[in-house]
Amino acid sequence: MKYIILFFFSFGSCFLIGQATDIRIAPTDQSESSDYSGCYNIELDYHGDEVALASQNYRIFYSSASLLFNEEKSGLVISPDDYTFNVVQHNQGIDASGIGELSFESNLGFINATILFKDPRLAGQRLTEDEGWTSIVRFCFEATDATDVGNPEVILARKDLTAPYGRAFVELSVVDGNESIAALPIKTYTDLK
């Protein structure tokens, strides 16, 4: 019985071979709407055969000394017909001094949000290699001090940088041409600094 459990665990965490994505946080295009001032989109630049974006987990660290998370303005950029957005956890003002390498660890903010694919039979957001950067979700903040806006620091959680603060990282999954759900590896991360 032990071997069967291990087999299913390994099978459940399969990756798409030869396919990956780059991920970045980018300011929203203010020409779209001034309502999204202080908002940043998470964008993917996909490399591989066409797939549909499935469920995702976004874990983000930010300086809660300089930013306040605005959950009301945050949400999906992709179609709400196919996906739901939910902030599962939001903590701010955490003193994690001496734990890791983030410059704002003495006043840490953390967001854990999920995007759930409503039904794998739906078309969903298609990712293709030649599409370039695709905006997926928007996270909005307000500056705590209007005189000191500067460049805010918002960091995507990942094993090599944020593991000392928690074991949850950005996770992406896709539905491939065989209608199988698989994890989508992330090649590069570009944070907001």
Structure description:
This protein has a single domain (2-190), classed as Immunoglobulin-like (Sandwich). Helix content is 8%, strand content 47%. The chain has two helices and twelve strands; from the N terminus they run αβββββββββαβββ. A hairpin with a 5-residue loop joins strand 10 and strand 11 (181-183). It is globular, with a radius of gyration of 17 Å. The model is unreliable at 1-17 (pLDDT under 50).
Topology:
Elements: H1 2-12, E1 20-27, E2 39-47, E3 51-63, E4 67-76, E5 83-94, E6 108-117, E7 126-127, E8 133-143, E9 154-156, H2 159-162, E10 171-175, E11 181-183, E12 186-190
Parallel strand pairs: 1-12
Antiparallel strand pairs: 1-2, 2-8, 3-6, 3-7, 3-9, 3-10, 4-8, 5-6, 10-11
Provide a brief overview of the structure.
The protein has 193 residues and is mainly beta. It is built from two helices and twelve strands; from the N terminus they run H-E-E-E-E-E-E-E-E-E-H-E-E-E. It has one domain: Immunoglobulin-like.
Helix content: under 10%
Q: Could you give the order of the helices and strands?
A: HEEEEEEEEEHEEE
CATH topology: Immunoglobulin-like
Distance between the termini: 49 Å
The rough form would be described as globular
Tell me the number of strands: 12
Residue share in β-strands = over 45%
Largest sheet: 7 strands, antiparallel
Number of domains: 1
Rounded to an integer in angstroms, the radius of gyration calculated over CA atoms is 17 Å
User: Which stretches of 5+ consecutive residues score pLDDT under 50?
Assistant: 1-17
Identify the CATH architecture: Sandwich
What is the number of helices? Answer: 2
CATH class: Mainly Beta
Structural class: mainly beta
Global mean pLDDT: 84
